[in-house]
Amino acid sequence: MEKVILIKYGELSTKKDNINFFLTKLKDNISYVLKDDEATIDYDLGRMFIHTRNIDRVLDKVKNIFGIHEINISYIIDSIEFEVIKEELLKLLKEKEFKTFKVETKRSNKKINSTSVELSKNMGAFILKNIPNLKVDVNNPEVLINIEYRLNNTLIYFEKIKGLGGYPVGTLGKGLLMLSGGIDSPVAGYMAIKRGVKIEAIYFESPPHTSIEAKNKVKELARKLAKYNHEINLHVINFTEIQEEIYKNIPHEYLITIMRRMMYRISAIIAGRRNCKILINGESIGQVASQTLTSMSAINEVVKIPVIRPLACFDKLDIIEIAKKIDTYETSILPYEDCCTIFVPKHPVINPDKERCREYEKLIPYEELIYKAIKEHEIIKLGELKNKEYEDLL
């Protein structure tokens, strides 16, 4: 009897003709995360198994991998004979303390004559006979005994650990996350990764108006997202000259709108160069002046690349709850200003006119400035704990 980590697919099992592509990618992602561990992985269309001596260490890592519906510590018995199964199960149950139980059986091997219900009843009767003072509780058992009869072996497992769900990272291509230092954009990145999008990130700094602490804050947020994305390339754009030109030449109520249009232009160019198919940001409808529908439309018109807003219809409290869950919230609320919070006008336009935007942009040499900012931009590779850039933060 071997103790293994059992992976269940959930949504991936609906992919039919494409399921092998998704499962191969999931296996590759797990292998990457476990590259420093002694572990082997095998799978079929129904289940994936991780064989390792370091169950607890590997389990902690697997919990952060998208594409997994459920995780179980499982025992593989190389038999489908009822007499063999019941004796092995009895050994496992005698190591537990409990008073109520329930047996649930699945039978993918249809050569077994008994039905799943009959197998469960027979096993329940055997347990009651051999372990005193137990009762069956079909609604709220202390121990739920799961038995799966497969083609050549049988699985037994008890506790179920909920996985992150979603799709394996990289199955849906790449996207570029517009990562600020706020609460929303890291959550948007997380939501995109969950749908199988491998992300890179772009950050706009404006020294000396923004500080090195603000930059380090964003690097830390990217590092936290790298836990789900393997690693993240962070593109750092010096936005100072562009932002100062906007501030000196553009009517102040249009500062944010024009600034965002410039950020979108730069992001679209970087995305194209990095084979990213979409831009991703943390905009939520109506949250600030630049996130009204009219503003989004005026800002969006400068790019042809699709812009995905995973949080568009989320309440702020919902976003905060996810930020706390993924451990970005405390970093996001550190009091260091970014490009989007400096030079904010008292009365920003909430319904900008596209034609005015185009006319105002003629007042600044933005194409030249954009070219310079992209040419001189910095790329920082961020992983979890081993990356030198993270060590510099300590």
List its salient traits.
394 residues; alpha/beta; VC0802-like; Rossmann fold; 9-stranded mixed β-sheet; 6-stranded mixed β-sheet; 15 strands; 39% helix; disordered C terminus
Structure report:
With 394 residues, the chain is of the alpha/beta class. The chain folds into 2 domains: 2-165, VC0802-like; 174-391, HUPs (Rossmann fold, 3-Layer(aba) Sandwich). The chain is built from 14 helices and 15 strands. The strands form 2 sheets. Strands 1, 2, 3, 4, 5, 6, 7, 8 and 9 form a 9-stranded mixed β-sheet that branches. A 6-stranded mixed β-sheet has the order 14-13-10-11-12-15, sandwiched between helices. Helix 9 (293-300) links the parallel strand 13 and strand 14. The longest helix is centred in the C-terminal third of the chain and has 19 residues, at 255-273. The two termini are 45 Å apart.
Q: What is the CATH architecture descriptor of the largest domain?
A: 3-Layer(aba) Sandwich
CATH topology of the largest domain: Rossmann fold
Structural class: alpha/beta
Figure out the total of helices.
Answer: 14
Q: Under the CATH scheme, which class of the largest domain?
A: Alpha Beta
Distance between the termini: 45 Å
Beta-strand content: 15-25%
Number of strands: 15
What is the N-to-C order of secondary-structure elements (H for helix, E for strand)? EHEEHEHEHEEEEEHEHEHHEHEHHHHEH
- Overall morphology: elongated
User: Radius of gyration from the CA trace?
Assistant: 27 Å
CATH superfamily of the largest domain: HUPs
What do the pLDDT scores average to?
A: 92
Number of domains: 2
Provide the helix percentage: 25-40%
Reported for the largest beta sheet, the result is: 9 strands, mixed
Low-confidence stretches: 385-394
